[in-house]
Fold:
Amino acid sequence: CFCLFGMIDDMTNPWWIIGFSLVLRFFQGMSSAFVQTTCYSIAANDFPEKREQIVGLVEAMTGIGCIAGPVLGSALYQFLGFKSTFLVYGSFLIFIAIIIKLNVTQKGLSDDYSNVSMSEQVPWETSINEWDEIDQERDEESKVTDMGWKVIDRW
Structure:
């Protein structure tokens, strides 16, 4: 997607430039959302005992990227020009994606779950009737105070 941004420099029709830019920016935004969601999911699932530290580290790296990105991008633009900046950055992302794909292993389900249906794999699945029962229990446990506040008395 970033390599295609460099092709905008060759376009002459302003409507094509705007349309192409909007379409590419749309796909870039979607990709960014996918990456952010994936990073937080991996951080939370692979390091449950250090979840807060790992999520903090992901946030810190995001902040560093937001600070360093414009500085490096403007330096590349100054030395290489518009088209080459996007080609260099896009090529760098493709290279990093290949390295990650070759070096990161995928965690899968253990053999214990290979013949189990999805509903049996998810122990927290709760039916609507069970939620209704939970709500009724909460209503029975709560009481209204003199001020009209609803207090849950569980202790």
Remarks:
- Helices lie at 2-5, 14-46, 51-80, 82-103, 118-121, 128-141.
- Residues 108-125 have pLDDT under 50 and may be disordered.
- The first strand starts at residue 142 and ends at 144.
- The radius of gyration is 25 Å.
